[in-house]
Amino acid sequence: MDSILKRNNVQVIGDGKQVMLFAHGFGCDQQSWKFIVDSFTADYKVVLFDYVGSGKSDISQYSSAKYGKLDGYAQDVLDVCAALNLSEAIFVGHSVSAMIGLLAAVRQPEYFKKLVFIGPSPRYLNDEGYVGGFERSDLESLFEFMDSNYLGWSSAMAPAIMGNPDRPELGSFLTSSFCATDPDIAREFARVTFFSDNRVDLNKLTVESLTLQCEEDIIAPLQVGQYVTEHTPNNSIIILKATGHCPHISEPEETIKAIKSFI
Amino acid sequence: MPEQINKEMLALLDDADALYHNAPCGYVSFLANGTIVKINRTLLTWLGYTADEILYQKKFGDFLSKGGQIHYEMFFRPMLNVSGSVKELSYELVKSDGSAFHVLFSAIAIRGESNAVQAVNAIITDNTDRKHYEKEILLAKKLAEGEKKTFQFLADLIPEMIWTAKADGEIDYVNQRFIYYFNLPEKSFSLNVILSKIHSEDRNIFISTWKANVLSGQDLHIELKLLNKHEEYEWHLVKAVPYRNEENQITKWFGSCTNINEHKRALKKKDEFMSIASHELKTPITSLMGTLQLLDRMKNDPSPKMLPNLIERANKNIRKVNSLVGELLNVSQLNEGQLHLTKTTFNIAEMITNSCHHVRTEGIFDVVVKGDEKLKICADESRIEQVLINFVNNAVKYAPNSKQIVISFEQQAEQVKFCVTDKGPGIPLEKLPHLFDRYFRVDSSGSQYSGLGLGLYICAEIIKKHNGRYGVDSQLGDGTTFWFTLPC
Fold first, then answer.
1. In chain A, which residues touch B (CB < 8 A)?
2. What is d(CA B311, CA B425) in angstroms, rounded to the nearest whole number?
3. How high is the pLDDT of residue B185?
4. Any alpha helices (H) in B217-347, and if so which ranges?
5. Coil, strand, or helix at residue B135?
6. DSSP annotation string for B457-472
7. pLDDT confidence bin for B360, thresholds 50/70/90
8. DSSP letter at B248?
9. Helix A70-83 with A96-107: angle, nearest 10 deg
10. Which of B66, B91, B117 is nearest residue A250 as measured by Cβ atoms?
């Protein structure tokens, strides 16, 4: 149990009884919840964690075989639930974590009471009769930007390069920098995220859920949010005024209000 | 004294507006939703727009490609919100004419009272030139990694076990084959573990030789028995050469261990063969010498009764020597790949009758030939005869109580199958696969049967040369059938 808590850098804060489990999206770590967690700690027990390969998780536990599918990440969620002996938790997942949470809840619904999806997308690529928002070439160009930002001159991402396993003394830079991660893992996580297709899983969900959709979000456009709510049993949708893909960061107040109205 | 800068010049330098607009970098300010509210002339020039076309009309994201927009939303915005600033993200901006240029993008967040980001001030520097270098560097890095992988692959999978040692002789690298051969724990090996794998007979010689070579800088060249992971010792040739730097100092040793076990075994077999061959040749020669002594004694008074007998005995021994030497010659021909076939079409039954004449005349064995008397085949008649004689002699030798030997042949589809069957004691199963090996004798003690152990090996080579197949079926107590096929 301790090994899981360490592996996923699990943090438990707050005084309440009802557990809220927050799962970060691709590219970030649990720090992305910093603007909203304080609003929940008085009434809830808040659980934060980093997926293996992200943030301060134990990167040595990362394996391409396991995390080459969203199921591998869903297993991280289930592992955390089991390690903390959770039941009936409220799961809040941002971006790709919405689908990861959904996969986890389909496999073991007893752990979950409600799910909140922030900016969910069951499939990012356009398909026949489906608008995901992206063509393959768009994503290839994203991967190129990621590479050039991780490996090029960019100093925002530079600490990630400094987190070289051969030079552990530089590790502290890595962990103190938000969004910095191992470039190889980031690349794989990006591919897993953006090439996933979980449309068939939506109607398997038995747990009540909420979709938080930003009015203007190029990563998860409005049609995608609507698709999710239409195809997921017992899902409601709230359209936020916030723009972008991270309302919990850019418009925390509005996001907190919307989550509270649901739970 | 430095020249005084005039006031007008100073005013110009302090002119914030001029500085802003003419700076060698782009300045842009936009709202939280991306709407551009301020932009300098430098950036306008780079982008190819007028201020009116952009201000309050366009969002920052409009100048990014779709991939750039995702990156911007996924990385830039969260980073800016959390950290308050972002330094040097790498993007591509799209100009009015549709072309793009590389930029580094740094920004700070302007927060309102609620701490929410209200606006963003950003600096943009054109790094197109640097991007070229970056591309080159990334490419070089990729190539270097690729090369590294290739060489690692090469080093690990090369059939040899290879290793390197420091100048003082301490082994500091071994390849995958080395690890695999000795079944060492991955990446951790100590000199003591490796030394323990050397046969105790060779270990001390190796240690002293290696020490001496490390000191003298001479190439190492030593044959050792090394313990493999199946706990068997195998002969290896261990070699190492020193690498010298520009100052002629040894900085490294490069070594290999070549498995010479087969070679060593073959040499041993050859030695054994030499002793058998000498023995085999000596027997008829000794007998011949005895005969000649007898003849010498009676040369003045030849006994008409004994003379023909002695001559026949001498002839028999000479034939024996001749056939042994013939076999040896055959083998050396085979080794040099000089077995040439002269094919003719001949009647099989006639060939068999002629070739088995000697067995019949000796009268102990009854040779029965079964097969279509009219069947003909195209092959090297004398070589096939040699094979049959060998098979028959084999039966005579190893099944002395059999009395009857059956030679049969029959056409089967595109081939003719020849069988030589005896009713002898049979051959143990474990010996069957080796019967056609060179130097193999069923009874390895070598006393019971004579011969060089070459006969069947030569037969096999002749049949192979004819593109035929060969084999032996044997049942202990029931007899043995040696067979071969020839294509027709």
1. 25-28, 31-32, 34-35, 95, 134-135, 138-149, 151-157, 178-179, 216-219, 243-246, 249-253
2. 36
3. 77
4. 261-297, 306-335
5. helix
6. HHHHHHHHHTT--EEE
7. low
8. S
9. 60
10. B117
Minimal Cα distance from A133: which residue of B? B66
Among the CATH numbers 3.40.50.300, 3.40.50.720, 3.40.50.450, 3.40.50.1820, which is that of A2-124+197-262?
A: 3.40.50.1820
| Band of pLDDT at residue A169, cut at 50, 70 and 90 | very low
B297–A contact, CB cutoff 8 A = no
Hunting for tokens 């004579």 — which residue is that?
A: B450
- Residue-by-residue DSSP string for B153-214: HHHHHSSSEEEEEETTS-EEEE-HHHHHHHTPPTT---HHHHHHTB-HHHHHHHHHHHHHHH
Tens of pLDDT, residue by residue over A20-29, are 999 998 877 8
Active-site residues of A: which are they?
95, 217, 245
Rounded Cα distance between A111 and B73, Å, is: 32
Least confident of A46-55, B122-131, B328-337: B328-337
**Would the CB atoms of B67 and A246 count as touching at under 8 Å?**
no
Query: Cα dist. A142→A139, A145, B135, B184, B334 in Å?
Result: 5, 5, 16, 44, 67
**What pTM, to 2 d.p., does this model score?**
0.56
What pLDDT sits at residue B443?
Answer: 58
Q: What is the identity of the amino acid at A168?
A: P
